[in-house]
Amino acid sequence: MTRVHGTAPERTEVRVGFMPLTDCAPVVMASVLGFDEQQGIRIVLSKEASWSSVRDRLVRGQLDAAHVLYGLMVGVQLGIGAAPHPLAILMGLSRNGQAITLSRRLAERGAVDGSSLAQLIRAEPRGYSFGHTFPTGNHALWLYYWLAAAGIDPFRHAYSVTVPPPQMAANLAAGHMDGYCAGEPWGARAVRDGSGFTVATSQEIWPDHPGKVLGTSSAFADACPNTCRALVAAVLQAARWMDASGANRSAAAEVLSSPAYVGAAREDIAPRLLGRYEDGLGNSWDDANPVRFHDGGAVNHPWLSDATWFMTQQVRWGLLKKEPDYEAVAAALNRMRLYREAAELAEVPTFSALHRSSRLIDDVVWDGSDPHGYLASCTIRR
């Protein structure tokens, strides 16, 4: 492939962290399939134990880039819970494919959806606990949004705990919590072991929502732009390969099942990677909005309205004490020019728009045009 920008990568070895989740597939397969070598770099993968480890190692420069939660990137940029640290989103890695899992014990008491869970909580108030994976991250915000849409205040009617994704199903089975929101295959694991059931997929909450991103520090993006372009181009090639066929996804499931990557059984990974769901209550379906990695570049494009949504939710739940300059923060975080140049290298189409429109589970349309008004419309908030 011809390198259109002509300047060699400043660094040929790139340390990329990932969490053991199905949606780490683009960074893993970019390395496994040699797309990194085609772009003149070598991805050195680092399996991480928690999202806090990913955050700390990115900030300290121990990782050059990472498969990382969009909400985590926004939180670090804005200094939620610690001093702010400038970061850079290089591209989107995935959409959809997360799940909210409730315990079998709740199903036995009649809580099989949001409305019946709300009825149970009103009838039997107690300390209901729900797990998520990082305080400012995607899973906390999907969980809170889903609970609020059902009329459940996630802070008055329940409390939340932070648990690394691979430990979710075991903690549910042990009775340490009533449910959780996490990435796959850890929702599927609870269904297969019988400890829980899928009450909602994240794509039911927000069809084609943003998921993980390829993140780096602002310092690394500034110092090594050619390396970043090469890295994004390689991961774009892998993302396109992932979405090209079911056969490719099946092959990726086999790779991901290795202990070096996700380390879960192939039967936990493959079905939902292919869009085939069983909820643990006897229902099965082929999802219309399964996890996607490319979708003609729409998954990977840095949509500023996506970043703005995470900020509104962080304000809504008291993680941010005041509303930020939404558009300025989103534009600073997303390296649009660098992404477009990398997409040119990978021959991936780009989009002129910076915002997109979606209808969420509560029938509210989100397009990023009026974040203040959107936030003011939220009846349940801290």
Automatic annotation (TrEMBL):
The entry's protein name is: Nitrate ABC transporter substrate-binding protein
UniProt subcellular location: Endomembrane system
Q: Name one GO cellular component term.
A: endomembrane system
The UniProt entry's coiled-coil ranges are: none
Keywords from UniProt, A to Z, are:
Cell inner membrane, Cell membrane, Membrane, Signal, Transport
Q: Which InterPro entries match?
A: NrtA/CpmA_ABC-bd_dom
